[in-house]
UniProtKB/TrEMBL annotation:
This is DUF1905 domain-containing protein. It comes from the Bacteria. InterPro entries: AF2212/PG0164-like_sf, DUF1905. It holds the Pfam family DUF1905. It comes from Psychromicrobium lacuslunae. SUPFAM superfamilies: AF2212/PG0164-like.
């Protein structure tokens, strides 16, 4: 499965601060329908992600009925991304 989407970079100040982009609800629902076949536990969904010219392997985080795409520091630096900025992303499950 492959999904293209846009969203804003958000900063989560949990025990380990991190940056994410939230997937649109319709795509999250589609992913949720196959999640039991692809999750490795805790609802995490492994994906290959691409933002701009940067690709990396990561896992979608389940959050409030949807999913968050983590943006690692090297992705934000390579793509010059700031909190609140719009991002176009591609994920492949």
């Amino acid at each position: 499965m492959q999904f293209e989407f846009s969203g804003q970079v958000i900063h989560w100040r949990g025990p380990s601060p991190f940056h994410f982009v939230r997937l649109p609800d319709d795509q999250a629902e589609e992913i949720r329908s196959v999640s039991s076949a692809v999750t490795y536990g805790w609802g995490m969904i492994p994906v290959q992600a691409t933002v701009g010219a940067t690709s990396w392997k990561t896992s979608l985080f389940p959050k409030d009925g949807g999913y968050l795409l983590p943006l690692r520091d090297f992705v934000r630096v390579n793509e010059d991304l700031e909190v609140g900025e719009a991002v176009d992303a591609l994920i492949e499950i």
